[in-house]
Amino acid sequence: MGKLPRPVPWLAAGENFPPLDEAWSHHDPAPGLLAAGAVLDVPTLVQAYSRGIFPWFSLGQPPLWWSPDPRMVLQTRHFKLHRSLRKTLAHFQAQPGCELRFDSSFESVINACANKLRAGQPGTWIVPDMVQAYSNLHRAGHAHSVETWVNGELAGGLYCVNLGGMVFGESMFAHQTDASKIALAALVAFCRAHEIPMIDCQQNTRHLASLGASEISRAEFVTHLARTVGKTAPLWEFKPVYWNQLLTTGMTDLP
Q1: Which CATH number fits domain 10-67: 3.20.20.80, 2.40.50.140, 3.40.190.10, 3.30.70.3550?
Q2: What are phi and psi of 180, to 5 degrees?
Q3: Fold of 72-249
Q4: For the stretch 156-185, what's the b/e string if a residue is b when 16 or more beta carbons lie within 10 angstroms of its beta carbon?
Q5: I need a surface site. Which of 121, 175, 219, 223 has the fewest CB within 10 A?
Q6: What is the pTM of this model?
């Protein structure tokens, strides 16, 4: 009989998270699971993200807190600007009625992310409690939306968390082709303009890997957090000039 995993600690409201090395390993049923319980208030979320921990759970479950090892991240200098996306961005910039916005409709973005269909998944992890929690985090100035607008309608976007010089990607959606990729490209351009070198992606997916994301160790990720989360956060305002560096230095030799 195999060795049973360590019990998952149950956290009371306000209780500190356990050390990250107590998270379940790849030998356990849910690698990266660190704790359960606590509350989804702003101080708890800020504490969690600053330590490399994030919540992820389904409807009917208590809050579950994760810190996987390795960690999927997008080094902004490694973002793969494929030829097709470069053409899409050029068309988006030139087309009347196309606009990139930050934070003009955060709750619309997070609800669209919650309602999108996911292959192989019967439901969503962005449950109502998560929508409320990140809406509160947005009002506190720590969560932001990147929005692709076409002819006055929200066509796609993403939302993320920002602490100092670190950005944590959460989820994206698209109602029109490539609208979420435009939003991600805008986020990368914004991060480059503000010398933010890394966007946390949490979990490894083929889609993120195709755009340049890769895995690093949890120890390396936490070391990076320690250097960056205490910095002054940027002003979340998108300027068209931010596209310039991305379009001139992006990896455009890719198909």
Answers
A1: 3.30.70.3550
A2: -75, -35
A3: Aminopeptidase (3.40.630)
A4: bbbbbbbbbbbbbbbbbbbeeebbbbbbbb
A5: 121
A6: 0.93
